[in-house]
Design goal:
- There is one protein chain.
- The chain is mainly β.
- The chain has 3 domains: about 110 residues, no CATH class; about 80 residues, no CATH class; about 120 residues, no CATH class.
- Helix 2 packs parallel to helix 3.
- It is rod-shaped and about 115 Å long.
- The chain has 5 helices and 19 strands.
- Strands 4, 6, 8, 9 and 10 form a 5-stranded antiparallel sheet that branches.
Length: about 350
C-alpha cells in the first residue's frame, strides 16, 4: 500500500460517496457474513461530493453500508490524511457520520507516510464482537468413554482478542476400556461457523488419550501333576491329614483385564509365616502364567530355586509357606494368595 500514488485531479471535493456505495454492493466479492466481518478502509485528504456522481447522498451511502447494500453491514475505517493541499476528509463531518453509523474508526491528521500504520492502529481499535465456542467429537469417537467439557461453553470477544477456554477431559471406563488408546478432536466455531485455515481446512486440536489400567491382576495356584505329568497327588479330605497339597506340585496362574503376559512373583513367607515381613524370601522368577513348580517347606533351610524334573519347571525350597502374587505391565500388584504344602500350616 505504501507504493500507491494518486495523480491528476487537483480539485475538491471527491467522489467518495459513490465509491463507498459501490463497495457496499456485491462487486468486491465479499465473503458471507457471518462468519466474515466486512470492513472498508477509506483514506484521503478531501471531502466528498454530495450528491455524488451516481446521485448518492451521505444519507443514502450510510443506508447502503448499514442496511440496503448486498455486503451490509459494512464497517468503515476513515483515515484523514494531512496533506495541506485539500480541505480534509472530514471537513464537513462526513467521515464522522459514516464511521459513527457503521461502528468504525476515524483517525485524523495522519501523516501521508504513515497510512499503513494508521490502518493497523484502526483495525486494532475496532470493537467487533464475535461469539467463539468450542466443539469436540471425543464422546462420539470413543463411544462415550472420553468426554470433554469447556468453561465457559462459549464467549463473546472483540475480534483480535484471545478467547481462552478451560477444557476438562473425563474418562468413564470399565475394565474393557482400560489400557486402550482413543483419538479425537476439538475445534472452535466463530459465530457458529467452524474455524478454518487459509486453505479452507478445519483447524483442529488432535488428542490421543490412553485410558490407564487400574485393575490389579489376580493370582492363584492349583494342584498339578507330578513330574511324569500323569497323576495329581491326592490331597485334602481324601488324603486324611496330608494337608492341601502333600507333594507341593502347583501350577502358578494369573489373569488380568489388559495384560496377557502377567508376571508372577513367588515368596517364601519364612519362619513366621506372615507375608510382608523381614524374613520373607522372594524367589528369582518372575514366573509366567502356567509355570509348574514343586515347593518344599524345609524349616531352617536356605531358600533355593532350581530347574525341575519332567513336567515340573522349577523346584522351590523355602522355610515356610509359599505365597504368590501377580504384577501387570501397568505396575498393578495383585493380592497375594497362599499355596499350602505339607506339613499343614499352623497359621492362617
Amino acid at each position: 500500500m505504501n507504493t500507491w500514488a494518486a495523480g491528476g485531479g487537483g480539485d475538491t471535493p471527491e467522489d467518495q460517496l459513490h465509491a463507498l456505495t459501490e463497495l457496499s454492493g456485491p462487486a468486491p466479492g465479499w465473503s458471507p457474513t457471518p462468519p466474515s466481518t466486512h470492513i472498508i478502509v477509506w483514506f484521503g485528504d478531501a471531502s466528498a461530493k454530495d450528491p455524488a456522481s451516481g446521485g448518492e447522498t451521505l444519507a443514502s451511502t450510510i443506508n447502503a453500508l448499514t442496511t440496503s447494500g448486498a455486503a451490509a453491514p459494512v464497517i468503515v475505517i476513515a483515515i484523514d490524511v494531512l496533506s495541506g493541499a485539500a480541505d480534509g476528509l472530514d471537513a464537513f463531518g462526513q467521515a464522522t457520520a459514516i464511521t459513527g453509523s457503521t461502528g468504525g474508526v476515524l483517525l485524523t491528521g495522519v501523516d501521508p507516510n504513515a497510512v499503513s500504520e494508521a490502518i493497523s492502529e484502526a483495525l486494532r481499535a475496532l470493537e467487533i464482537e464475535i461469539v467463539v465456542a468450542m466443539v469436540s467429537n471425543c464422546s462420539s469417537e470413543t463411544g462415550g468413554v472420553v468426554t470433554t467439557t469447556f468453561a465457559p461453553p462459549s464467549q463473546i470477544v472483540n475480534a483480535g482478542d484471545a478467547a481462552i477456554f478451560d477444557e476438562t477431559i473425563s474418562v468413564t471406563a470399565g475394565p474393557a476400556e482400560q489400557g486402550q488408546t482413543y483419538e479425537c478432536d476439538d475445534w472452535a466455531t466463530i459465530d457458529g461457523e467452524p474455524m478454518v485455515d487459509a486453505d479452507g481446512d478445519l483447524v483442529t486440536e488432535h488428542k490421543v488419550i490412553t485410558v490407564p489400567d487400574t485393575t490389579a491382576p489376580v493370582a492363584r495356584c492349583i494342584e498339578t501333576t507330578n513330574p511324569s505329568g500323569n497323576n495329581t497327588p491326592r490331597s485334602g479330605p481324601n488324603a486324611g491329614n496330608s494337608g492341601q497339597n502333600p507333594d507341593g506340585f502347583y501350577e502358578l496362574l494369573a489373569s488380568d483385564n489388559v495384560d496377557d503376559d502377567v508376571e508372577i512373583v513367588a515368596v517364601d513367607k519364612g519362619a513366621d509365616g506372615i507375608f510382608g515381613t523381614a524374613d520373607d524370601f522372594t524367589f528369582p522368577g518372575p514366573f509366567s502364567n502356567g509355570t509348574k513348580v514343586k515347593y518344599t517347606e524345609a524349616n531352617g533351610a536356605t531358600p533355593t530355586q532350581s530347574d525341575g524334573p519332567g513336567a515340573i519347571d522349577y523346584q522351590l525350597k523355602g522355610r515356610g509357606d509359599l505365597a504368590i502374587y501377580a504384577v501387570d505391565a501397568a505396575g498393578n500388584v495383585g493380592t497375594h494368595v497362599q499355596c499350602h504344602v505339607a506339613p499343614p500350616p499352623k497359621r492362617p
